[in-house]
Amino acid sequence: MHAQKIMQTAIRGRWAVAAMFLANGFLTGAWAPQIPVFLTRLDISKFTLGLLILLFGAGAVTAMTWCGHLISRHGSRTVLRWFGLIGSFGLLVVALAPNVPLAAIAMFIFGGSIGGMDVAMNANAVVVERRLSRAIMSSSHGFWSLGGFAGGALGGFAIQNYGHLAHAIVVTAFAFALIAVAVRYLIAEDKPLRGPSRGTGQRKFALPGNPLVYLVGLMALMTMISEGAVLDWAALYLQQELGADLAIAGLAYAAFSGIMAVMRFFGDGVRNRFGAVTTLRVSALVAAAGMLVAGLAPSPWLAIAAFAFCGFGIANMVPILFSAGGNQEGMSSGTGMSVVTTMGYSGILVAPSAIGFIAEHSSFGPIFVALSGLLVVVFLMAGLAHRAEFAPDAAPAE
């Protein structure tokens, strides 16, 4: 009877953390259609807009860096509660900002809340995986993709018909309500750290000494550089180099992200059956092949199909690497997750500008071919993700 109650609690926790992923993705997706209004409302240049978006990324990375320390001291459930509830108001604060200085502060806070929530919810998903002794990370990221799709798809219609502020208010109300319900059912680590000694707390704040977690973070970095490249540059590649019109060019990322979202809901079953390392190896090869064909494609439609194939592969790579980061031996899930997520998301934040600079002196085709090489490196390093493998009670909570 006691075991049954523990399992029921874990299942409720599984859906609670899925709701947090959904809310985070919804808030992030809802920001995208706000960007054109943000540009015209503040009467700023694209360069200034780029700097403000960079502040969003800076806030996210700052929070991600500190989040491992906070989780080590207070547990992922507590940290996720606070970042989630605060983060639900992030978009509204940005929408209310009347000038550039306040918008800069709002963007940093919004990015920090989303980034901190991201680390905490991934760390909590690792806790649920341990409790259930099976993978849930891929489907959790699937809920994030679903939330992002809904936030982006509904946002443009809402802003056009009701205005950007009304849209931000509705998004905030929905996100807050969803998070407020979900936080009641989040589960905690089996042995939450309560800071019995200041020395332990300080030790947990120090950078991990295990080099394996940084190698896993490097794999996440290479994977998310590829993901960010498709997000930011695939449409321009199709339009400028393959002669596609704007409508067709937009299908590149739509195909990539749509297939990725679907595959993430199947990913846990695949991973549970074949193992994390095998799944990662096959996924990396599939993604590399898709990226290679996209870079060599002679026509827009072949490139779109290749990007979709790449999304099929990349879908479950990041969830597996996050699980591996959160299950490193000798450190809390929050500490390992903080390292891997910070390194991984740095790829999305830094790579777009670097790729843009290279593309000015070259073209996008060779860049996508080179990115396929990074995915091959992930294939070769896949064995380092063995900590994402599952066996009943194989990994203690902390």
UniProtKB/TrEMBL annotation:
What GO annotations for molecular function exist for this entry?
transmembrane transporter activity
What's one GO-annotated cellular component? membrane
The record, for Pfam families, names: MFS_1
**Residues annotated as transmembrane:** 12-32, 44-67, 79-97, 103-121, 142-159, 165-187, 207-226, 246-266, 278-297, 303-324, 336-358, 364-385
Q: Where is the Major facilitator superfamily (MFS) profile domain?
A: 13-390
Provide the protein's localization.
Membrane
Give the Gene3D superfamilies listed for this entry: MFS general substrate transporter like domains
Q: Which UniProt keywords apply?
A: Membrane, Transmembrane, Transmembrane helix
- Give the highest taxon in the source lineage: Bacteria
The lineage is: Bacteria, Pseudomonadati, Pseudomonadota, Alphaproteobacteria, Hyphomicrobiales
Q: How does it sit in the membrane?
A: Multi-pass membrane protein
Protein's name according to its UniProt entry: MFS transporter
